């Protein structure tokens, strides 16, 4: 099979993706710190940088997809494993494995940040409900067996 790229091109491409992932992982770590501090300005600044790095990774993924299609392979994990094994370059295999590990680390850190953000949103929502005079009572079962919230309403000025 004739590949539309050389081993050196793929090696350079993977190295660039690894550098981009490392930068993204660092930003995600900074974002986690900013979320813990509830520093909205820092989170917004980090978000702008994250978007540009994600655009780079998206462009890279599209290039890899085009290369895989040109090589008459699928652009999934199995297709790339086949392409990399055909190259027979152990250094590229190691770099590819390291890149996959970095993708996993980025995904995990992003999930952590998403959970932090969801928790903050829930807290803010509850605080807003209290300010609006909506306090949720306990969830109880009614006569037909369905749960219902026994919501009480107290205005903030009355609380």
- Class in CATH? Mainly Alpha
Helix content: over 70%
Name the shape in a single word. elongated
Second-tier CATH architecture = Up-down Bundle
Q: Please list the strands of the largest sheet in the order they lie side by side.
A: 1-4
Low-confidence stretches: none
Strand content: 5-15%
Radius of gyration: 24 Å
Task: Note the topology.
Layout: H1 7-37, H2 40-70, H3 77-87, H4 90-132, E1 134-135, E2 139-141, E3 147-149, E4 152-153
Antiparallel strand pairs: 1-4, 2-3
Structure description:
This protein is mainly α and about 160 residues long. It has a single domain, classed as Methane Monooxygenase Hydroxylase, Chain G, domain 1, CATH 1.20.58. The protein has helices at about 5-35, 40-70, 75-85, 90-130, and strands at about 135, 140, 145-150, 150-155. Strands 1-4 form a two-stranded antiparallel sheet. Helix 1 (about 5-35) runs antiparallel to helix 2 and helix 1 (about 5-35) runs parallel beside helix 4. The longest helix has about 45 residues, at about 90-130. The radius of gyration is 24 Å and the shape is elongated.
């Amino acid at each position: 099979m004739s590949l539309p790229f050389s081993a050196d091109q793929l090696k350079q491409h993977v190295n660039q993706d690894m550098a981009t992932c490392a930068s993204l992982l660092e930003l995600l770590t900074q974002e986690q710190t900013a979320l813990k501090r509830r520093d909205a300005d820092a989170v917004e600044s980090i978000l702008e940088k994250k978007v540009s790095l994600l655009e780079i990774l998206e462009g890279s993924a599209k290039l890899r997809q085009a290369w895989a299609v040109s090589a008459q392979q699928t652009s999934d994990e199995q297709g790339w494993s086949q392409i990399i094994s055909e190259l027979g370059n152990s250094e590229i295999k190691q770099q590819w494995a390291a890149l996959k590990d970095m993708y996993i680390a980025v995904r995990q850190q992003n999930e952590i940040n998403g959970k932090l953000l969801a928790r903050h949103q829930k807290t803010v929502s509850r605080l807003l409900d209290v300010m609006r005079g909506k306090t949720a009572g306990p969830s109880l079962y009614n006569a037909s067996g369905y749960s219902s919230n026994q919501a009480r309403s107290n205005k903030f000025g009355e609380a």
